[in-house]
Amino acid sequence: MGETLHVTETPVAGLLEIGLTLHGDDRGWFTEVFQQAKLTALGFPSFEIVQQNVSYNREIGVTRGIHAEPWDKYVTVVHGRAFSAVVDLREGPGFGTVVTRELGPGTALYVPRGCGNAYQTLTPDVVYSYLVNEHWSPDARYTHIQAFDPALGIDWPIGPDAAIRSAKDIAHPRLADL
């Protein structure tokens, strides 16, 4: 606890890992999850928040994604731990690049639009939160791909046979079909 806030670039252009400062004592911990001025001073892009979404996941192995929405996301795990996978789905030399991280209360990710993200719960009762800079719309154009596509090379902690997934996520196309 008590690490200093920092922003780290990743192999995916625009994907940032944010190390949050956790202040803890015998009662628990406190953190500023998002503070625009401090993050901007560390090289974080301008990010106007218009919506916050929260996903509660009861069991270990819940796997959601891979979804690329037409907005930027600031992702945090408020409770529990999750394995995160981000895939660059934008046209260009980075297409198909994958970055994985374990997320908990001390780590956040900034996922730029056009990158697909997914996560898998590693503990029970995971609370996954994300801030976005565009409102959700049923007319928005999304890109979805199969989380367990071998072409991605993601080393998921829990394999496809034991993962808890929606029928919709299971039916997503493979990377080669995009």
Entry summary:
With 178 residues, the chain is mostly beta strands.
Q: What's the domain count?
A: 1
Per CATH, the superfamily is: Jelly Rolls
Q: Which class in CATH terms?
A: Mainly Beta
Cα-atom radius of gyration:
16 Å
Mean pLDDT: 95
> pLDDT below 50 for ≥5 consecutive residues: which ranges?
none
What is the count of DSSP helices, taking H or I runs of 4+ residues?
Answer: 2
User: Shape, please?
Assistant: globular
Write out the strand line-up for the largest beta sheet, numbering strands in chain order.
Answer: 1-2-10-7-12-5
Portion of residues within helices: under 10%
Q: How many beta-strand elements?
A: 13
Largest sheet: 6 strands, antiparallel
- End-to-end Cα distance: 42 Å
Strand content: 35-45%
- What is the CATH T-level topology? Jelly Rolls
Report what the structure shows.
The protein is mostly beta strands. The protein has a single domain (47-177), classed as Sandwich (Jelly Rolls), CATH 2.60.120. 6% of the residues lie in helices and 38% in strands. The chain is built from two helices and 13 strands, in the order ββββαβββββββββα. It has helices at 36-41, 167-170, and strands at 6-9, 16-19, 23-25, 28-30, 51-57, 63-68, 73-79, 82-88, 98-103, 107-111, 115-121, 126-132, 143-144. The strands form three sheets. Strands 1-2-10-7-12-5 form a six-stranded antiparallel beta sheet, with no helix packed on it. A hairpin with a 2-residue loop joins β3 (23-25) and β4 (28-30). The longest helix is centred in the first third of the chain and has 6 residues, at 36-41.
